[in-house]
Recover the amino acids of this structure.
């Protein structure tokens, strides 16, 4: 699976020139969005100094940009700029950018070289790692995609200093997920150093990113094409994707939805007798510690379940979920009972009054 170089450190973006000094690329095509366009000088200047043409394409921001129309716009721009099979596409941005740009790189001329430079914590620990690329289609997240390994993943933790606290917390949801899947020790470290990690203090931040990446890379290396244990990386995600889709991607960040989804999956694990309440309590406490939600607003549970039936991990017409027995001991459950899922969704939904009070607190805090 590997076959690529990953550089994880504060200030690693300054190494781009030296890392590409001996490359044979004919040109570079940099894809970013309006938020990450401010980082373009850090990328363009070292690339231009290599003596190759550098083209840029700026996407709109947000999940709504991750569509076939955006991919077509990229393909058209690449064609007009004369991007060829010896060119390299560089994805500069968060998960939306790396997902879309990776898909474009995988399909343009049957595949050109790709470099990921994630600029969000979510992108650094999850979206840019593992070779999955995708676009959304027909209201379903990541429905169309391919596998495409980058040649290089450049992870510069210093880029995170410009992000709002909510985006940092969102990325940390995927870090928590990695710990829940694979490492009670890492989970305990996240508890112990939460204040330092949230404050982006080094070396705790870079060490946390590195450990989350190593967990994902080890799982992916043993199941690159997602036919077995790689599914464990979807812990909480079937719930999360359905919640995001039901709320039209406007209520929660991806990480917030994942946090709620992990709590739903842990709650369901307890309801079905696989786990004790301690498993759920541990995850809830961790999410609260990192400022992540654990409960749903008043939503139609039937609509959420309807979206869950469309998840691409399902087999036939039955819902597949990742459930758990304890931290570090998860498994894939197929054909999960719909009524149990509905019961959990109802248990994890705030009353209208409680939700209203939560909104008031969020406005006046």
């Amino acid at each position: 699976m590997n076959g690529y170089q990953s550089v994880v450190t504060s200030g690693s973006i300054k190494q781009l020139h030296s890392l590409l000094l001996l490359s044979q690329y004919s040109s570079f095509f940099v894809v970013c969005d309006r938020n990450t366009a401010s980082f373009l000088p850090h990328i363009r200047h070292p690339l231009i100094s290599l003596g190759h043409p550098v083209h840029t394409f700026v996407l709109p921001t947000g999940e709504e940009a991750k569509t076939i129309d955006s991919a077509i716009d990229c393909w058209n721009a690449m064609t007009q700029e004369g991007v060829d099979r010896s060119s390299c596409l560089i994805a500069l941005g968060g998960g939306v950018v790396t997902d879309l740009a990776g898909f474009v790189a995988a399909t343009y001329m049957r595949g050109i070289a790709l470099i990921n430079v994630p600029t969000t914590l979510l992108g650094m620990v999850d979206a840019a790692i593992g070779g999955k690329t995708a676009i959304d289609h027909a209201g379903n997240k990541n429905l169309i995609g391919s596998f495409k390994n980058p040649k290089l993943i450049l992870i510069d933790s210093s880029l995170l200093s410009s992000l709002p606290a909510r985006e940092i917390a969102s990325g940390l949801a995927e870090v928590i997920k990695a710990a829940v899947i694979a490492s009670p020790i890492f989970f305990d470290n996240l508890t112990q150093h939460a204040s330092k990690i949230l404050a982006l203090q080094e070396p705790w931040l870079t060490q946390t990113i590195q450990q989350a990446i190593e967990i994902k890379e080890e799982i992916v290396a043993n199941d690159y094409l997602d036919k077995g244990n790689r599914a464990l990386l979807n812990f909480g995600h079937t719930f999360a994707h359905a919640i995001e889709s039901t709320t039209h991607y406007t209520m929660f960040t991806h990480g917030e939805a994942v946090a709620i989804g992990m709590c739903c999956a842990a709650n369901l694990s307890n309801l079905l007798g696989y786990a004790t309440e301690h498993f759920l309590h541990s995850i809830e406490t961790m999410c609260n510690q990192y400022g992540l939600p654990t409960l749903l607003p008043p939503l139609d549970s039937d609509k959420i379940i309807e979206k869950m039936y469309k998840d691409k991990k399902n087999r036939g017409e039955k819902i597949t979920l990742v459930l758990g027995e304890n931290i570090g001991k998860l498994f894939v459950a197929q054909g999960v009972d719909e009524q149990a899922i509905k019961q959990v969704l109802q248990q994890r939904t705030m009353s209208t009054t409680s939700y209203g009070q939560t909104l008031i607190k969020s406005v006046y805090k």
Q: What stands out?
A: The first strand starts at residue 5 and ends at 9. The radius of gyration is 20 Å.
